Amino acid sequence: MARSCAICGKVSMGGFNPQSSGSNRVRAHRRYHPNLQPLVITQNGNQVRVLACTRCRRTQTKSAR
């Protein structure tokens, strides 16, 4: 998948837009995408650029210290 985290596999999910508080019941479908950022990790001695969610990116940088 193009829009997924390379570390944890988090993908986009579907949901509904927040609607006005009236008697109307209009539900507009939308997608919620993960916050993916580029991250350089080391795999088999090579540096690889991957897309990772911010939670995994934060965990990777904290464990590197």
Secondary structure: elements and pairs:
Blueprint: E1 13-16, E2 29-32, E3 36-43, E4 46-53, H1 54-64
Antiparallel strand pairs: 1-2, 3-4
Structural summary, described in words:
The protein is an alpha+beta fold and 65 residues long. The chain has one helix at residues 54-64; strands at 13-16, 29-32, 36-43, 46-53. It has one domain. The longest helix is centred in the last third of the chain and has 11 residues, at 54-64. The radius of gyration is 17 Å and the shape is elongated. The model has no long low-confidence stretch (mean pLDDT 89).
What is the gist of this entry?
By secondary structure, the protein is α+β, with helices and mostly antiparallel strands.
Shape: elongated
Domain count: 1
Order of strands in the sheet with most strands: 1-2
Count the E strands. Answer: 4
What level of helicity do the residues show?
A: 10-25%
Elements, N to C (H/E): EEEEH
Q: What is the count of helical runs? A: 1
Q: Which percent range describes the beta-strand content?
A: 35-45%
The N- to C-terminal Cα distance equals 30 Å
Supply the helix-strand structural class: alpha+beta
- Mean pLDDT equals 89
Main sheet properties? 2 strands, antiparallel
> What's the Cα radius of gyration?
17 Å
Low-confidence segments: none
